[in-house]
Design a protein that fits this description.
The strands form 3 sheets. Strands 1-7-8-9-10-11 form a 6-stranded mixed sheet, covered by helices on one side. A 4-stranded antiparallel sheet has the order 2-3-4-5, with no helix packed on it. It is 15% helix and 48% strand. A hairpin with a 7-residue loop joins strand 8 and strand 9. It is α+β, with helices and mostly antiparallel strands and 197 residues long. The protein has one domain. The chain is globular.
Length: 197
Amino acid sequence: MRSLLIPLTLAGLCQAAHAGEISSAYTDLDSKKDCVTYAQAQEGDGDWADLACSGYRGYPVLIGYDDARESLFYGFPPGGDMTSAWESFSGFNSSAAKVEWRIETSGDKAVPFAVIHRRSISNPEDGTSQTEVLLVAKVAQMDAREGCTVGLVLATGNPAANDQARKIADEKAKSFVCGKDKRMVIGNVPAFGRVDN
């Protein structure tokens, strides 16, 4: 029995070492300071704009703004354009000024694989109250270029929201298949949708 346990224990240690250490890094997101508008509506053409913003160590954050709603993309989009998919809440919404990146470090290589970003969604009933949601997204890498929302965690009145969001990020983001896998939802989150163009 003991001879069987030793290889199993060693295998477990090798897997843990191979997986890399996971930690968080934080960046600011101020659309007036950290972003460049590269497309926007002309007069009489509605209220929309596309912005490219600084993110984590060369990984950009792209914002698609349309009629007081935001769709965000983290990392490198396919073909350099984030318009292949729009993901947002149906209610008016905005993103917080701080982005949490989940980073996996192996040796001297640190790769951001997920993002946790707080969003505020207006209540369509009264227009004044806000619901806070932590959005968990897969970060698009330079080679794969696949990024999307992996999970949504109700933050309003939920003291465990940060831990729940990190668990989703760490366990689901890397293997999540955008446009196919079903995102995780914790709590009574406002309506959220994805539109593939």
